[in-house]
Amino acid sequence: MPQGIAAMLPELANANGELVRRGRFLEVTFLLEIGGSAYLIRIHRGRIESMQPGPHVQPRWTFALRAPAAAWAKFWQAVPPPGTHDLIAMLKNGDLKLEGDQHPFIANLRYFKELLALPRVAGAQERR
Amino acid sequence: MAAPQFEAAVGRYLPLQVDGKRHRLYIEEAGSGMPLLCLHTAGSDGRQFRGLMNDKALTAQFRVIAFDLPWHGKSSPPAGWQEGEYRLTSRAYVDTVMAVIDALGLERPVCMGCSIGGRIVLHLALEHPQRFRALIGLESAAHAQAYYDLDWLYRPDVHGGEVCGAIISGLIAPTVPSSERWETIWHYMQGGPGVFKGDLHFYTQDGDVRGRLSSIDTQACPLYLLTGEYDYSCSPADSRELAAHIKGAKLTVMEKLGHFPMSEDPPLFLTYLRPVLEEIRATAR
Q: Of B262, B260, B256, B263, which is closest to residue B274 (Cα–Cα)?
């Protein structure tokens, strides 16, 4: 289940010293939607400070990333198929919707691409 | 003391007059034989062809040449660049390629371009088919629609090098060697402010050739197309659409490669390129 994979994000992110270093100027709350499940993720100095599952009452976020559960499941495969292997690819093919103030997402694009791909690497290592 | 083990490529600077402006172009080459002129992607430079220039089997038969477009790599922008914004046009791009061919005295080279280079070979096929032995379009489509706001690439509150590298990283196949992936990304991170965006003006607007494809004569000049399966900027579907509109164009879809095949995994790309070059050597007049 992609929701279960998403739950790994805080531990994976905060254990990754290079990711945290690259995000050292990053302060933002964003919404990650996986099909019917939405998570409010608060990042403080590159670390995931909190990740709250819904339901949310009047959630406040700077930007939102929304995609169907099936798309995230493909994205998190060890070798994802063409078109679902990258956040910008998913934006282009329409699987991913980016809403709100995109500035912190774009200004830290490598950070967010690598953050959200962490379960892929972790999963691949588990399978070895 | 042992002699230094240099790579085969040698680089030189060429003063060149294009479009009434004096340019200083950086050109690299390796090998001898049939000239193979290589055109880099938007926002990058000729280093993308390092793997080809280091391939002894290729350079035994081909003189592999790559130049950095003005504003790119070690080629300077023209004097006065500091006023105004860089924008690549079809006219300037075609004229630059032809000026390089004339200056080097290349006799009907094979010209292989990737992405914006894959687009300009279509313009070359339309305007100068008799000047080329064959044309090879890598990641080539007749047109590309912008799929993100290009203004993000050039504004003071977003780091240009970081965003250019991060934007294009997904265009590389996930399976290629890490060192080649990050070398490819580094070239993008080194691009000058606004240069990648200026190239995309050609890629998404000025260079559209959709209405002219039926005039391309592959009898006059053979056209080969090679597209990586992980490329979503110029996808295999885009290249299929292109090939469907050009009688005689030959398309190969490359597995486990993306938008920068010659740079992201040179040995794998060469397995696709060698048969094309063999056919050109065997059949091109």
A: B262
CB spacing of B162 vs A80 below 8 angstroms: no
- Compute the distance between CA of residue B166 and CA of residue B202 in angstroms, rounded to an integer: 21
CB contact under 8 A, B157 and A107: yes
Nearest to B140 by CA among B213, B59, B63, B67: B213
**Model pTM score:** 0.96
Question: Can you list the positions of beta strands (E) in chain A?
Answer: 27-34, 37-44, 47-53, 63-67, 97-100
Q: Is pLDDT above 70 for B284?
A: no
Spell out which residues of chain A touch residue B163, defining contact as CB-CB under 8 Å.
Answer: 106-107, 109
Measured CA to CA, the distance from residue A95 to residue B252 in angstroms comes to 27
Q: What is the 3-state secondary structure (H, E, C) of B193-257?
A: CCHHHHHHHHHHHHCCCHHHHHHCCCCCCCEEEEEECCCCCCCHHHHHHHHHCCCCCEEEEECCC
